[in-house]
Predict the 3D structure of the following.
Amino acid sequence: MRNILLDLEYDGTDFWGSQIQVRGRTVQGELEKALGQLTQQKTRVLLAGRTDQGVHARGQRANFYTASTLSLTTFVRGLNALLDPDLAVLQAQEVPESFHARFDARRRTYRYTVYNVAIRSPLARRYAWHLSTALDVAAMAAALQMLLGEHDFAAFAASGPDRTGRTTVRRIEQVRCWSEGHWIYFQITANAFLRRMVRNLVGQLVLLGQGRCDEASFRTIWQGLDRSQAGPPAPPQGLCLLRVEYEDIER
Amino acid sequence: MRNILLDLEYDGTDFWGSQIQVRGRTVQGELEKALGQLTQQKTRVLLAGRTDQGVHARGQRANFYTASTLSLTTFVRGLNALLDPDLAVLQAQEVPESFHARFDARRRTYRYTVYNVAIRSPLARRYAWHLSTALDVAAMAAALQMLLGEHDFAAFAASGPDRTGRTTVRRIEQVRCWSEGHWIYFQITANAFLRRMVRNLVGQLVLLGQGRCDEASFRTIWQGLDRSQAGPPAPPQGLCLLRVEYEDIER
């Protein structure tokens, strides 16, 4: 069987997330449907990272096994012709049969975008979180910097049923928080992320940037490992999965 | 009566254009409805420029007369609370009673955005025209430069019934065509524009950038003043009204 890796871009606004579900339109569901039409074979797609409802991606990746002999170019063109305008395949490449888009991913990078000015923007609203009071970017950047390295991020995991036995330790490798005009960006690279970790982190960083939490409390909340002590998550539309990286695969 | 000038931003995707119509949601219609709710008085809104269905604006302007004593801040906040997320009031100011947003406008600036790379982009699709074959930006910039000054632009007017007696002469004051990565921008400032002029111009410039028309034919089409000789208009989602300027009003 051939194993093919796809690079994907999508506007998450009208998806019920990336992973297939019983009801609701999903990235995986749309891809599997289009691959079924193209190859005339039932095909399962393995996504590198899970994105929640409303979260976007510029560099999501996914692999699938196929007996089809279609060329890579035909896969890209054919899928893009079949998929709706809010989902596109940017690239396709052959990978070894043992390759798994999720298990083999070594690094993921997310960017969160805030639009920080008094009045909301109709043209920014789909891809940014509007906050009207001025945020302290330097304070947020300093707090973000603290998170570098391998730590337990249970305080920023999704709330919900406890998943006994699963580690909540992750390794954050790069962080950056900066502003350009009215825009503020948070960019985080880690080996992997807990579900809703970036949105929970940004939610708490924004409380800090608004002066509603200081760096000591930020550290206490984080090190307390208790999700219920942290603030509400940032909304999904500001989040975008920028990149998923592998060791042995060239982009 | 007070006369109030508003600065507006909108995402044109879900509007049937700016001007009120018998049916369909319009920028003017939504503003008049919100002003009616806020002031409890029937209020007419005068827009500076007409934008067609699907065209966006970052700097549209409009004035209205009112007997209301609400403060300018209350107008901005109240309207933004009543308007849908795709339309916002950025600023409000008092202007002399004789001021008219359309008749007094001295200069309008439009920007057209092209996304020029092989594969379509789900995240760019609402605000750019995707063209997959590489365009010659220098050739398009040179042709655009020719249009500077006062000329008859009948060749780039909207097709449709002839409007006898109306001049098709306009004065183009500034032009710029440049690329940034995969993006190509066309920016044009003129005293006024004919209906659909920017989209028709960009449509013809793109034919030139694709090598399907040379500079001499571009000039012949333009100087022939015959709309039927020019190519199809560029699609609306790439167009944005950036600015409307007045002589005596400070922004």
User: Anything to note?
Assistant: Chain A has two domains: 2-104, 107-244. The beta strands of chain A are 2-10, 45-47, 56-66, 87-95, 107-116, 129-131, 149-152, 169-180, 183-190, 239-245.
